[in-house]
Design brief:
Blueprint (H helix, E strand, L loop, with lengths): L1 H7 L8 H6 L5 H10 L3 H10 L2 E2 L14 E2 L5 E6 L8 H13 L4 E4 L7 H11 L4 E3 L1 H9 L7 H14 L3 E4 L8 H4 L9 H13 L4 H4 L1 H11 L2 E4 L14 H19 L4 E5 L8 H11 L5 E4 L11 H15 L3 E3 L12 H21 L7 H11 L3 H7 L3 H9 L4 H4 L9 H4 L1 H10 L3 H16 L1
Parallel strand pairs: 3-4, 3-10, 4-5, 5-6, 6-7, 7-8, 8-9, 9-10
Antiparallel strand pairs: 1-2
Helix pairs in contact: 5-6, 5-16, 7-8, 8-12, 14-15, 15-16, 17-18, 18-19
Length: 460
């Protein structure tokens, strides 16, 4: 389907979604997304043209099913996967991808670092994925050159173009960290916790030169413009602990990301802004509002945020609390956190746990935002529960397999179809059952008459 759309535009000088939107053209991708999101296509076109919404869709990812990230759409969830020097199996990464998509990932980032076969892994992931794939190119750049000191501008551009040709739909680049920010880092408890940011800062300090991604930003934009790669402007100085949250280093970098956003829009390149990190609950709203001001309402994409630092092994829960609040305040995409955060490389089951925590957070936020039609499924679930329709309950659940698995632990398959109770209360104490039986033959007309008499008597 999309292959034909792209083929029709083969001779166009510029083929980014933002370019067409600015020209007043509703692309097939915009039409497709508008239908999926229950939006007016012209309204969505204006949002893309303005930069408040992005459709990450590399022209070489021809089997991609278009999606959008923005405040007018439902909250999206990204899943991170990726091989390392200790685990670099293509089959395992494709399994993680499929698990993430099965449980609702809207985009997937390949964060492979140190693996020997990074190109082959990425190629397999893109080939198997109907959702946009993002990367942090710095990981492969350093892997190929071996030492950050040897990094050149040509190395950056070479790897970015290679990944763009493969079909990567968005790059995270850490271009907002500048030399003038360095003194602020020394005041922190945890310095720089971003891998890409720390590598970039290391090069800057060793060579006493400005951030290379900032220096050659216009050249990077040319590559993004050619293949319609969106930029996810990375927050090198995101807080890695509550102590560092909302400090001067973080906010000064955010202002630079706002400047880079305008430069990207001038070249018709789509942009989203990456955000923190670790943030106390009471500072989340302010962080979202500052991003909207400094970055001109470009979509905000946050990791968590984690609202505490002591949840090791349960960080998917601690961060989902912050994620729900952030999305309610206006964040457009949430990057999931798995139970392995801070502890190790996630496996397939960790991906499932992280995805479900974040689909819950995203859905809760969309209900609070009153996105049309979002709460319908919750109301249907209420009906199914009250009427003991177990099959329908499993169908409506975010994770049908887990819901059925827990139910069947005590009420096996042959029982659940007829059982008008669950194992928590049993048939005698089931509130639904008690209520239904109480109301079954209740005379409401007689009740209203008696109530009216009592009220009349009391008033006299």
């Amino acid at each position: 389907m999309r292959k034909e759309w792209i083929k029709k535009r083969a001779n166009d000088k510029v083929r980014t979604q933002m370019y067409y939107a600015k020209k007043g053209i509703i692309t097939e991708e915009i039409e497709y997304v508008a239908k999926k999101e229950n939006l007016d296509p012209e309204f969505l076109r204006k949002e893309v043209a303005r930069g408040r919404c992005i459709i990450p869709a590399n022209i070489n990812h021809t089997h991609l099913e278009p999606m959008a990230i923005g405040r007018v759409t439902k909250t999206k969830v990204n899943a991170n996967i990726g091989a390392s020097a200790l685990a670099s199996d293509i089959e395992e990464e494709v399994k993680k991808l499929k698990t993430a998509i099965k449980y609702g990932a809207d985009t997937v980032m390949d964060l492979s670092a140190g693996a020997k076969n990074m190109d082959e892994i990425r190629e397999a992931i893109i080939k198997a994925s109907p959702v946009p794939i993002g990367t942090v190119p710095m990981y492969q750049i350093i892997d190929e050159i071996g030492d950050v000191e040897k990094l050149t501008y040509d190395d950056i551009l070479r790897v970015l173009e290679k990944q763009a040709k493969q079909g990567v739909s968005y790059f995270t680049i850490h271009a907002g960290l500048l030399l003038r920010h360095m003194p602020e880092i020394a005041k922190r408890k945890m310095g720089i916790v971003s891998r890409g940011g720390s590598l970039t800062a290391s090069w800057m300090l060793k060579h006493h030169k400005e951030n290379p991604f900032y220096t050659i930003f216009d050249d990077i934009l040319e590559i993004c413009r050619e293949y319609d790669v969106s930029l996810s402007l990375g927050d090198s100085l995101r807080p890695g602990c509550l102590y560092d949250a909302s400090d001067k280093a973080q906010l000064e970098e955010l202002k630079v990301l706002g400047e880079l956003t305008l430069r990207a829009w001038d070249k018709d390149v789509q942009v989203m802004i990456e955000g923190p990190g670790h943030v106390p609950i009471n500072e989340i709203e302010r962080n979202v509002k500052l991003e909207q001001i400094y970055c001109h309402e470009a979509p905000f994409y946050v990791l968590g945020p984690l609202v505490l630092d002591i949840g090791a092994g349960y960080d998917h829960i601690g961060s989902a609390i912050g994620a729900a609040m952030a999305a309610w305040q206006g964040v457009s995409m949430l990057c999931y956190v798995t139970p392995k955060e801070h502890l190790g490389l996630p496996n397939e089951e960790d991906v499932r746990e992280g995805m479900m925590a974040y689909k819950i957070a995203a859905h809760a936020a969309d209900i609070a935002r009153k996105i049309p039609g979002v709460r319908r499924v919750d109301d249907e679930m209420s009906d199914a529960r009250y009427h003991f329709d177990w099959k329908r309950q499993f169908e409506l659940a975010l994770d049908p397999e887990r819901a059925k698995e827990y139910h069947d632990e005590t009420l096996p398959q042959e029982v659940f179809k007829e059982a008008e109770f669950c194992s928590m209360c049993g048939p005698k104490f089931c509130s639904y059952k008690v209520t239904q039986e109480s109301l079954e033959n209740f005379d409401w007309e007689e009740f209203k008459k008696e109530a009216a008499k009592k009220m009349e008597k009391e008033s006299v």
